[in-house]
Amino acid sequence: MLKKLNFYSTFSKSISSIKVVLLLFGILLSLSGCERITTPMLPGTDTPDTEPLTVMTYNVYVGSSADPLLSVENLLQVPTEVANMYNNVMASDFPGRAAAITKSIKTYQPHLIGLQEISLIRRQSPGDRIAGGTVPAEEVVLDFLQILMDALQAEGLNYQVAAQVENLDIEMPMFTDTGIDDVRLTDYDVILSRSDVVISRPMSTNYTKALTIEMLGLEVQRGYAAVDATVAGVTYHVVNTHLEAEELGQGSRVAQAQELVNNLQGETLPIILLGDFNTRAPDGTAYQILLSAGYVDVWQMDSEGTGKTCCQDDDIRNEVSDLSVRIDQIFVRNMELPASVMTHTVGDKPSDRLTSGLWPSDHAGVVAHFMFE
Questions:
Q1: For residue 130, which of 218, 43, 12, 258 has the smallest C-alpha distance?
Q2: Helix (H, G, I), strand (E, B), or coil: what is residue 160?
């Protein structure tokens, strides 16, 4: 969503499967009482030796739309809109949704996962921002990364944080039943790697171009995380990003895509680019920038279904899926592609919904399997 610029001074002055039968699990082996990683197999393979390189991208959804907050016309509306957004996030039950997302991860056990909208939500009561205070909120309300890592561990999965980028850190006042509190949102994009993947050279950067919301004195910061990951003796440069979403920010999104291309231009390793690019395939401007730079959208190779990944209703309680565009994508470059690259979406079937009726996210995840001989 947003990064702090001069909101606080401004505010104080003005009083803001694949339905194919993918991936049968290998026999669960035990050695010295320790569980080993199960190796997924594609249909028709007799041994786990041909395990595909598997990657996933998933926007896990903070739990609320920011549009009402971003479109306020009077700063006096901000505490009400912040409270609405906070309550929506709480109602979206990320712990429950993390368990559902973990089920998809367990089914396919990707070597590498790019996650977007990994949020850290903190609170301060009473708040001091509305009066121009600067003490940061530190009481943790929801730590999406820790919740997800705990869910993975509970399922017997061993993943680690390979790289992450902090996109924004914003704190705003909100009305409560007892007064005015401050709520702080820090947003990250994260790369997780499976325990048998060797990682090196983690890095992160923020784009120089960001969407500015002048009314709130806010800057919507975006960036990307990257890491070198070695799987089956081959090292890949894996990148995860979340380009600007707001329609007002189309210019920012295009500039960010170009900056990403420029920054990776000199990379000689095979590149796997994961993310929520907020650019529609096949005609989006940022999408075309990536193709023009030599990136291959692997969905176009061997996929099932439409690949549509966005978006469910803001409250993610719609009974019928509303996914209508494909903006979550997996690209590769500097890579001799195998004959078989299988791709599919996850988290978008009625059976994926929680018993409460919530979808795991407002996005579907995307999985790609690269079958090398």
A1: 12
A2: strand
Give a three-class secondary structure readout of 202-262.
EEEEECCCCEEECCCCEEECCEEEEEEEEECCEEEEEEEEECCCCHHHHHHHHHHHHHHHH
Give dist(CA 60, CA 316) in Å, integer. 12
**Residues in contact with 330: Cβ distance below 8 Å, sequence separation at least 6, in sequence order:** 55, 57, 272, 273, 274, 297, 298, 299, 343, 366, 368
Residue 320's identity, in one-letter code, is V
| Residue whose C-alpha is closest to residue 166's, from 196, 135, 145, 141 | 145
Residues whose CB falls within 8 Å of the CB of residue 340, separated by 6 or more in sequence, listed in order? 302, 369, 370, 371
Q: How far apart are CA 74 and CA 26, in angstroms?
A: 59
Per the listing, tokens 């919301």 go with 213
Residue 258 to residue 244: CA distance in whole angstroms: 13
Report which secondary-structure segment, H or E, holds 87: helix 78-91
pLDDT at 209 over 80: yes
Cβ contacts of 363 within 8 Å, gap of 6 or more: 58, 59, 60, 61, 276, 309, 310, 311, 312, 328, 347
Angle, CA of 16, 275 and 357, to the nearest 5°: 70
- Where would I find the H helices in 130-223? 144-154
Contact 328, 242 (CB under 8 A): no
Q: What does the pLDDT look like over 11-44, one tens digit per residue?
A: 444 433 333 333 333 333 333 333 333 444 443 3
Rg from Cα positions in the chain: 21
> What gap in Å lies between CA 227 and CA 190, rounded to an integer?
11
DSSP state, 136? Answer: P
Assigned token pair, 41? 């197999």
pLDDT at residue 362 is higher than 80:
yes
Question: In 3D, which of 311, 327, 308 has the Cα closest to residue 359?
Answer: 311
pTM, to two decimals: 0.87
Burial 293-327 (b: 16+ CB within 10 A, else e): bebbbbbebbbeeebbbbbbebbbeeeebebebbb
